[in-house]
């Protein structure tokens, strides 16, 4: 047996393509399946949310004007990077109590989900866009366009597959996002940020924070420069649900709620998850000489 | 090459003969129009209208009625029932009963045939509807006759055909109706907005409780007559009249599955807030401050017509009105001069005169609001220019108005005025124009004017609006989705996309 002391990873956040600690300096302890301490995760604050929104807003113009083909390739690249680090993610899931078979299944499903949405990048526009046969002498067409900046709560369970499942449909459509990782199991999310960082995803397109839902609910749902809020929690209290909706009314933030129990179920991937974060733009032009 | 030059014949100079003696139109004294009034002889307006619930016209529980004023004469035109909580309750129950007993069990193609009937009945009584619309709301007869009513009929005709084709509308999913839709519509396009709401709701198998605006309920109650004439099963369409409280009773009613609202952003936010924590679906079609961007390479004369249409159509009571004009610097003086010239030719007056371009402001309240904004604009330091036309002595009329020398932060640039008031700003680069255009919380509609195709696609792609009119403005069609980004609303109306808010997908 070697005497070598293992090098432990510091789990930080992912904002604007960098890995800063929370500006608040606060942390919370993350435990493994046997209640041993695994890491000190950042307990992010309102300021971290605001910084992340700035990064996401800065990123959205470039990201949304990339070609659909390019976005598709970048999503595919994320899948490639995740596949090559499968062992790391399986290990990480095992430390929080996954059986190795379950852990492997979750990582593989996450890779496949990325591939699924990568393939949609240049197709949902054709399926959901339209040419409209108006009665006047005009050419008229409607196209889905990204909403902009989306705040997301990643699911509490399925810390990797859940995260990928809520992120991929949002960004494949040209949005940028701020994701609050699973509160209880934030480590896969932070490790996934390393995958994103090596996958040609421009900085700021995906930002990942860790912290407490209770504390960040207000900051993530009241921010006036955020276009949509997305969550899939099944156990949310009626009070919180109402608060999220009410905060959405401040700037007509689209509140997308899709309660999901089992992220491995077939119906948890769908092009309708993409169109939930799209606006339809209709353009008219006269036809003539 | 040199040979070519040598053999070229010297061109004989011919005197230029314009087709008209002067290239400048002369507006001094010529171009008089005679009165061309639309007759109202065949129009019947009762003194009082009841609610339409469960297929019958019924008096309101509290027996209260309120006057509806003709904004041209400032005289009461008729009165409408004020629906209170109990009446709304009755209407929702009637709609629920119709949903479960008749409408959702009816074969889809038969459902469609009823909606086709409604389209045809509107067409048959089109002129009557147009006249009523102009009397009740003040809009020029030319617009109600040529735009509002035909489009309303077309809307029913379009959605009628969808009723038995919904399997083709949502790939991979099966669409089911939601149940009872509560719908609240504004006063600017009363019948057309009714059509936008009712047609897709019925086509997808929902039943409806609709509240028209309190100043313009007449055509909705006439439409109720059509529902009876069409033999539409009772309770499928219910119409309750009243003001904000009636609307709020609909929004907060437990028996309603979906809310569709068109109106101001302010009220839209209140509605969204009151729906918080419920499972009710909703669509909101809210305010706007439409940018209309004119590039130097635009066809200027067409653009000027487009600008006029964008802001003065329906007295500017249009949520998608092009109320913020952005002109590229090089042509700004020319465009403003041409706009002023064109504004001088606009006829403001009797909505029932077929020559009228700009009718009456819909209500005294709106008239006062517009005038407050005019004063505000001047006090904010902007330069105001108004057409010199004479206004009728009676009625709520407003001169077409331009503001120049305005800044991005002026309230008249940021806030929706909902009247014939245009602000004009300039820009140098395309990017500056786009940035200024996007610099409001609204995102409903806008215009781009340039003869360069590539520029149209680039600019229209960057404007954060649900509708972009390129080298045109204020075009509408039932097949064309309409709706806003940002604080201009949620969801789309019209087209295939307009079905989505009325179904759940399985």
Quaternary state of the chains:
heterodimer
**How much helical structure, as a percent, in the residues of chain A?**
40-55%
State the low-pLDDT regions of chain A, or none. Answer: none
Number of domains of chain A: 1
Describe the sheet with the most strands of chain A.
5 strands, parallel
- Classified in CATH, the superfamily of the largest domain in chain B is Aldehyde Dehydrogenase, Chain A, domain 1
Description:
The complex is a heterodimer of chains A (289) and B (506). Chain A has 289 residues and is α/β, with parallel strands linked by helices. Chain A has one domain: Aldehyde Dehydrogenase, Chain A, domain 1 (3-Layer(aba) Sandwich). Helices cover 42% and strands 18% of the residues of chain A. In chain A, the strands form 3 sheets. In chain A, strands 7-6-5-8-9 form a 5-stranded parallel β-sheet, sandwiched between helices. Chain A has a 3-stranded antiparallel β-sheet with strand order 3-4-10. In chain A, strands 1-2 form a two-stranded antiparallel ribbon. In chain A, helix 2 runs antiparallel to helix 4 and helix 8 packs parallel to helix 9. Chain A is globular, with a radius of gyration of 20 Å. The mean pLDDT of chain A is 97. Chain B has 506 residues and is of the alpha/beta class. Chain B has 2 domains: 259 residues, Aldehyde Dehydrogenase, Chain A, domain 1; 180 residues, 3-Layer(aba) Sandwich (Aldehyde Dehydrogenase, Chain A, domain 2), CATH 3.40.309.10. Chain B is 37% helix and 17% strand. Chain B contains 15 helices and 20 strands. In chain B, strands 14-15-16-13-12-17-18 form a 7-stranded mixed β-sheet, sandwiched between helices. Chain B has a 6-stranded mixed β-sheet with strand order 9-8-7-10-11-19, with helices on both faces. In chain B, strand 8, helix 7 and strand 9 form a beta-alpha-beta unit. The radius of gyration of chain B is 25 Å and the shape is globular. The relative contact order of chain B is 0.13. At the A-B interface, strand 4, helix 9 and strand 10 of A face helix 9, helix 15, strand 18 and strand 19 of B. Strand 10 of chain A pairs parallel with strand 18 of chain B, so a sheet runs across the interface.
């Amino acid at each position: 047996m070697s005497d070598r002391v293992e090098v432990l990873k510091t789990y930080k956040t992912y904002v604007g393509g960098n890995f800063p600690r929370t500006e608040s300096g606060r942390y919370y302890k993350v435990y493994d399946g046997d209640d041993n301490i695994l890491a000190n995760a950042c307990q992010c604050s309102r300021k971290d949310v605001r910084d992340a929104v700035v990064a996401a807003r800065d990123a959205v113009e470039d990201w949304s004007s990339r070609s659909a083909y390019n976005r598709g390739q970048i999503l595919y690249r994320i899948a490639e990077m995740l596949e090559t680090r499968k062992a790391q993610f399986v290990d990480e899931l095992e430390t929080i109590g996954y059986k190795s078979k379950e852990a492997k299944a979750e990582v593989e499903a996450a890779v496949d989900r990325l591939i699924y949405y990568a393939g949609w990048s240049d197709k949902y526009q054709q399926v959901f866009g339209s040419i409209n046969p108006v009665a006047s002498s005009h050419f008229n067409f409607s196209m889905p366009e990204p909403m902009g900046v989306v705040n997301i709560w990643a699911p509490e369970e399925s810390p990797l597959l859940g995260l990928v499942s809520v992120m991929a449909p949002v960004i494949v459509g040209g949005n940028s996002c701020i994701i609050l990782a699973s509160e209880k199991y934030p480590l896969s999310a932070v490790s996934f940020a390393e995958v994103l960082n090596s996958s040609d995803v421009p900085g700021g397109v995906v930002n990942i924070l860790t912290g407490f839902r209770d504390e960040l609910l207000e900051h993530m749902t009241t921010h006036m420069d955020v276009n949509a809020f997305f969550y899939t929690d099944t156990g949310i209290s009626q009070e919180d649900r109402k608060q999220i909706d009410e905060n959405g009314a401040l700037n007509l933030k689209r509140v997308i709620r899709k309660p999901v129990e089992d992220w491995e179920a077939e119906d948890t991937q769908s092009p309708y998850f993409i169109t939930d974060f799209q606006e339809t733009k209709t353009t008219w032009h006269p036809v003539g000489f | 090459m040199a040979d070519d030059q040598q053999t070229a014949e010297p061109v004989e100079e011919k005197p230029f003969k314009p087709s008209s003696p002067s290239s400048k139109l002369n507006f001094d004294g010529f171009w008089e129009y005679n009165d061309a009034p639309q007759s109202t002889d065949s129009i019947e307006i009762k003194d009082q209208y009841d609610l339409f619930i469960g297929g019958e016209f019924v008096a309101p529980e509290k027996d209260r009625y309120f006057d509806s004023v003709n904004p041209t004469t400032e005289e009461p035109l008729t009165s409408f029932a004020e629906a209170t909580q109990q009446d709304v309750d009755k209407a929702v129950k009637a709609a629920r009963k119709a949903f479960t007993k008749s409408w959702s069990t009816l074969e889809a193609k038969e459902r469609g045939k009823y909606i086709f009937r409604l389209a045809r009945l509107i067409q048959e009584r089109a002129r009557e509807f147009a006249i009523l619309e102009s009397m009740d709301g003040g809009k020029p007869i030319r617009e109600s006759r040529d735009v509002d009513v035909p489009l309303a009929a077309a809307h029913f005709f379009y959605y009628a055909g969808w009723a038995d084709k919904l399997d083709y509308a949502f790939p991979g999913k099966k669409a089911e109706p939601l149940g009872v839709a509560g719908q609240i519509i504004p006063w600017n396009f009363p019948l057309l907005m009714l059509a936008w709401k009712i047609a897709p709701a019925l086509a997808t198998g929902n039943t409806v409780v609709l509240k028209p605006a309190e100043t313009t309920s007449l055509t909705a109650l006439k439409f109720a007559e059509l529902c009876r004439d069409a033999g539409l099963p009772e309770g499928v369409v219910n119409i309750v009249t009243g003001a904000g409280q009636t609307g709020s009773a609909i929004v907060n009613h437990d028996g309603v599955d979906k809310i569709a609202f068109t109106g101001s952003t302010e009220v839209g936010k209140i509605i969204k807030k009151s729906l918080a924590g419920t499972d009710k679906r909703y669509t909101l079609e809210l305010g706007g401050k439409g940018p209309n961007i004119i590039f130097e390479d635009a066809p200027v004369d067409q653009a000027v017509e487009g600008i006029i249409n964008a802001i003065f159509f329906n007295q500017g009571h249009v949520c998608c009105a092009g109320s913020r004009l952005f002109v590229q610097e090089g042509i700004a003086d020319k465009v403003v001069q041409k706009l002023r010239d064109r504004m001088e030719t606009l006829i403001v007056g009797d909505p029932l005169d077929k020559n009228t371009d700009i009718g009456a402001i819909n209500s005294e309240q709106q008239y006062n609001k517009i005038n407050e904004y005019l004063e505000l604009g001047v006090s904010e330091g902007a330069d105001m220019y108004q057409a010199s036309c004479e206004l009728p002595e009676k009625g709520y009329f407003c001169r077409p108005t331009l503001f120049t020398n305005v800044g991005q932060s002026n309230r008249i640039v940021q806030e929706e005025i909902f009247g014939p008031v245009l602000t004009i700003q300039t820009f140098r680069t395309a990017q500056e124009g786009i940035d200024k255009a996007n610099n409001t919380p609204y995102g409903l509609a806008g215009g781009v004017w340039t003869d360069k195709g590539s520029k149209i696609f680039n600019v229209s792609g960057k404007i954060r609006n649900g509708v972009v009119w390129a080298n045109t403005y204020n075009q509408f069609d039932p097949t064309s989705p309409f709706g806003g980004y940002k604080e201009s609303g949620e969801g789309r109306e019209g087209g295939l996309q307009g079905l989505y808010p009325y179904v759940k997908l399985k």
